[in-house]
Specification:
single chain, 283 residues, alpha+beta, Type 1 dockerin domain, 2 domains, three-stranded antiparallel β-sheet, 18% helix, globular
Amino acid sequence: MKKITDISLILLLVMWLIPLNVHADNTAGDVNNDGEVNIADVNTVINFILGDRSRQSVDVNNDGEINIADVNAIIGIILNGTSVSEEHEYVDLGLPSGTLWATCNIGANSPEEYGDYFAWGEIEPKDYYNWTTYIWCNGSDNTITKYCLDDDHGYNGFTDGKTELDTKDDAAYVNWGTSWRMPSWEQIVELRDYSSWQFVQRNGVYGQLGIGPNGNSIFLPASGGRWNGALYHMGSWGAYWSRTHRTSIESCYFGFYKDDIHWTGNEYRCFGFNVRAVRALQN
């Protein structure tokens, strides 16, 4: 059983002193179904964690687990009116699957902005990208602790056979909300094969312009990638993670150079690449 952290207890004490309510009509966070999101909902989740199973619909962030993250999600709803804003622009390119692609990267406010960089399976950007800072290993590529396919790379022989990210490790899902996911490998291949591509400069930023079957377009900036504390190849290369991986230490990404779209790549999971999300409901 997971314990409530000291920080969360402090937040709860602050919330007791500031009685904020948010009206809710079947809204995430209203776990006691009283039409409001407030401290009573926080208490309901805490009681569930501590053993009270009288209510079951308390997985606020829909990650398949019920823990302190659900308490923090309710706090976000109370303080901000919503836990994660899901209102981000997307484009219908006329792809056979109907997949809708976001018009900008996670962490960006326009198609030309580079946005944030993530190691595969991490949900926050950071200053240094290498195996020693990677969350899913113990400091090296032969100590993998999650998403491991062979015991040669797993910590003490660990394997789990996972080839796609859990939603709680999906940077699009966590940062943009439950309507969004990092693209699957199949969605990347579809985008590549059913669009025409041209390396262009747009508002002073170089990148690939893809035009879909229906004439709508998507712009992917050549935002480079991060290794250790540096950003490499910005302006000439772009790299975007999928939610799929093929080996224990490499995950699938799609990317391009100025004169070459080589979308079918695998790269070390600890590198910092961008994320271009897809609408999850269209998967």
